């Protein structure tokens, strides 16, 4: 798979996962506000942070693949 294809896969996927993680963090906060048992909202919050950080990692990988594409695959402009 080329760096461009990886970039076009990882960057949007990372953004989607970041959005899902942010929504889950909000959900965990609302569970806390509704006074649900601590064990429940802490578990949901922990899972939310895992998802959010996974999204940041995916997006970061997309940025890295973009740089590699620009350095290795994109044709150099004529001088």
Descriptive labels:
79 residues, mainly alpha
Largest sheet: none
State the share of residues found in helices, binned by percent: over 70%
What separation lies between the terminal Cα atoms?
30 Å
Strand share of the residues?
Answer: under 5%
Structure class: mainly alpha
Evaluate the radius of gyration.
18 Å
- What would you call the shape? rod-shaped
Q: How many domain units?
A: 1
Keywords: Membrane, Transmembrane, Transmembrane helix
Mind explaining what this structure looks like?
This protein is mainly α. It has one domain. The protein is 85% helix and 0% strand. The chain has helices at 3-33, 38-73. Helix 1 packs antiparallel against helix 2 (38-73). The longest helix is centred in the last third of the chain and has 36 residues, at 38-73. The protein starts with a helix and ends in a 6-residue tail after the last helix. The model has no long low-confidence stretch (mean pLDDT 93).
Layout of secondary structure:
Elements (H helix, E strand, L loop, with lengths): L2 H31 L4 H36 L6
In short:
The protein is mostly helical and 79 residues long. Helices cover 85% and strands 0% of the residues. The chain crosses the membrane at residues 7-29, 41-64.
């Amino acid at each position: 798979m080329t760096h461009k294809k990886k970039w076009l896969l990882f960057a949007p996927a990372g953004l989607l996962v970041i959005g899902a993680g942010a929504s889950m963090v909000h959900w965990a906060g609302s569970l806390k506000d509704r006074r649900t048992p601590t064990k429940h909202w802490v578990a949901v919050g922990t899972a939310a942070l895992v998802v959010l950080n996974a999204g940041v990692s995916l997006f970061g990988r997309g940025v890295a693949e973009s740089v590699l594409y620009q350095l290795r695959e994109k044709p150099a402009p004529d001088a």
